[in-house]
Amino acid sequence: MKRIKKELALLLVVSLLMSIMWVSPGTAAEQEKNPLASASTTYVLLYIDKAEAFLNGTQVTLDAPATIIKDKMYVPAKFLGDALGMKVEWNDATRQIEMETPGYEIMLDIDNKSVWINGYWMAFDDVAAIVNGRLMIKLTWLADYMGAKYTYNNELRRVEVLHVNAPQGLYDPNTSNSKPVAKFTFAKQTYKIGEPIKFVDLSYDPDAEGIAKFEWKGKEDAYFQAGTYPITLTVWDSNGNKSEPYTRNLVISKETFLSAVEYPIYMKPVGSFIKTNWSTLWSHFWELPELPKTATEVPGRTLLVSDSPEEFYEQGILYQDEVEGKVRLYADHINGTKEKVSFAILAKNMTDKPVTIKTTNKGEVWPSVYANLIGSEATVDFLLGDPLNETMTIPAGQTFTYKQMPDFYPAQGVNLFYDLETDGKVQFSFIAAKDVSQKALALPKLAFSGHVRGTFPVSEVKWNIDASSFTTPSRLILGDGIKDPFLPGYDPQRKAEVKNDGNYGVIYKIHADKPRKMAIMILAKGGVFKGPIKINGDIRLIPESGVITAFDGMQILAKTTGKEESLDIEFSPPAGSAFPVDLIFYPLDDRMDQQP
After folding, report:
1. Which residue from 578, 586, 332 is spatially nearest to 478, judged by alpha carbons?
2. φ and ψ at residue 168, rounded to 5 degrees
3. Which fold would CATH assign to domain 41-164?
4. Looking at the domain covering 308-451, what would its CATH class be?
5. pTM given for the model
């Protein structure tokens, strides 16, 4: 008997998995139709012991016909369940057949000859039978649970089943609350490839509690392949009641509005990242043509760079030179010792009369272990250019402490900018010492270890660019040493000609008259980058938090409207960042302005 039961169960599983075979509709004369049937009504004609049947007027062929067993009508469960919208599925884990009707969960256990209805048991043979390996259900029993009406015509040996799919009400008397209704539409019927989709939310809550949660499936800001896309919305009210899912189909034509590459450049706001894969980055942005520029070195302010040894391992003089007039002091150092030290800049009057030092701008960051952070924040401070008028007068032959940082601990670093003017020759010494005083000038001069240090006659460059008429994406390269040459200088401690690799401490001023409509982006090609850039007076942080690399994509720095009189960009290479970086100028047209 157990073997027979298993074979019957196997036959039932196979039957439930078989698809119902449909045939082409017959002629009007061949079809039997109910004129009262509507879109919300299902009308089924079944013939006793015949495979032919009609579903809403369309002839179909069944793999199990209706039959009479002990004077009771049995109908094919799978076919009728599908026709009336009732779930009929085989659960392989429990080896049971699961049926769901409005308000009822039914499980048929063939092995144990049991039927469970919302947890209550009844005998299998009272409601179901297995005929030729197919599950058959007693029509009177099924009709009651489905809310269907049926009529048996003995002369025609035909069963007529009529089921009205009555919509469920929104109000639940048990909770005295209603389910919300999800509904939406589109601003227009058809959209182009890459065209922003405007979703019009029409959802509501009958209790006027408002919609608390939205869940979309298939929703995108734009689509980049033609086709029809089903989009579904489900909503919840503030009491946790869930709506029925609501689905609409969106049609995307073959006409292109914006490509997948163009879309984020047009649509994302300033400050946003454009995430892209390496293939797209390489093929569209890596080797763009250069925007023509006229570069001018601006003399008049001498730059002292103390950036080596960038990480010092003993006390001493990091860099020293004599200058007068307009000067910029730049220092970037990390404490590589195993003890707390102070960093200071000493100023010694090299003349026989008092010398006044006037500080007009500064960028300074207290000691920190985050090299990228201190480089970025010092540059932000300097580019802000807040009004500053600090003066110091040094008697003839005397040494004063021009600047001293709080003590910094092992692995901490400092980054400093100062613009100043002197009315006489002054020796500036960048020192690292436990005790800061004139005696520190007797400390040894630390040996060169490969980083940048020197005195440079140029601390500012100007680039004039034509950004008014270019039509293809273009770029400016910063910090590569070729298209943007590193400025020459001299290191008196080594008595050697040097170059300012990276042009640290140099201010770039980029100017364009009447720029066209465009997006300006940055691509960190050299590695990790963090720093500010000033565009038409506004500071842009790159990025807002953390660091970026080329693998992160690009950041949008600004967008012009085409109506500005000029474009002015101010930049200084932040300490701790890698170069080169590309400024990308991407021309925009009026497509977005034409949107409804």
Report:
1. 578
2. -75, 140
3. Copper Amine Oxidase; Chain A, domain 1 (3.30.457)
4. mainly beta
5. 0.71
